[in-house]
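During the no-cost extension, the postdoctoral fellow (Dr. R.K.) reprocessed legacy sequence entries with the updated structure-token encoder. One reprocessed record is reproduced below for audit purposes.
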Amino acid sequence: MSNIIKEEMNDVKNIFGRFRRKDFSGDTGQIVKNSSYQLTTSLIAKFGSLIFTVVVARMLGVEIFGLYTLALTTIILFASFSDLGISTAMITFASKSLGKNKLGKAKTYFKGLLRYKIYLTIICSFILITLGYFLANNYYNKPIFYALLAGAIYIPIVTITGYIGAAFHAGNNFKITMIKEIIFQISRLTLIPITILLLFRISLEASIIVASIILAITFSYFLGLLYLRIVAKKEIPFLRKKAKILTKNEKLELVRFILPLSVTALGGMFFGYIDILMLGHYVDLTHIGYYGAAFGLIGAAGLIISFVAAAVLPVFARAKGKSLENIFSKTRNFTFMIGLAAAIFTFLTAKYILMIYGKEFLPATILLQLFSLILIIMPVVAIYNSYFVSIKKTQIIAKLLIISTVVNVVLNIWFIKYGLQFGMMEGVIGACVATICSRMIYLAGFIISKRIG
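Re-encoded structure tokens follow.
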């Protein structure tokens, strides 16, 4: 452990040295440059999200915040169907084409996959509209129907924004997405509080308030999408080139790459959201609010720490052999050390962190302490995920995610029902434990798969 710490300290010194010299040459320099923009973007996104969540939670109160959490989680679940590995495939194949100076092929991958992305997005929105009433009034038995209808507009705006942002990343341009994030966060932090104040002033029902918040968030995403659309032609060089026809082998390779990712995405939806979906059925809105507050904090912190994984994917995709293994080892170890420090800090200060939500959220302290373990697991998993994607072994990711998802579902059913015998908070704690255990199994699977080759 001491050797690892010394190595990481040396790496940190080298990174700061590159910044002082403005040296971004080579793979390491590209990673440093990408990571700096990605870190800045992540900090803006997650601190912005944290401030936004705190403001919304304090304005809405635990119960309506629980309603908002349940509605948004359900919408995000449906939105996940609109990707199915398409964005990751576009980054990987377009990046490889750009690395070989084949800009026409990069455009072909972008346009072809965008077409499928739009089809899936339309289908997802339609299914959400169709199932919205059943989910709200039969499964959850909670007033989120109008919010789910608003989600049908939310899904296409958010997914297309993410896809165009991924095109910038494929070309190692992380600056533009950082600017887009600034636009989104400023507009969201301005529009939504004003919207909530106006809605409370005219005394509307909670269901209308939550639906209006979803629509206001959608408009903020639209502003970011508008910016990306304006600068895309200028800042993404391969979009100005004529698309090249893919060979039969290239099409087959793309299909083989995407299929495991599609399975991964399907499994990942339940892996990431089964806890909220089940809690929405079993517990009241107050306890969903507690869970949402704790998990929201951990999710924001975890994604900030995971910034390296997104930044190294284009570099992983171009590196080979010992160079790839060396980059992987350094980024994994560095990420682990950051995650460990963050987990310890969160566990010790959980009570004080939750005070920013207000005293009514303090019962969630034990949940936040348990979830602190995810700050170690989540960023390292992201590094392994980027590694296996870059070497086109997405079938390993798919298999591990399916296994972990099945385990997650079984553990959630078992632990939630067992905990509910003692009370609703105990049921929520059961969901926390199930989530942590399944993510540990997921990480263990990656480590074993990497070692056995």
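The chain has 15 helices and no strands. Residues 2-452 form one domain. The remaining legacy entries will be reprocessed before the final report is submitted.
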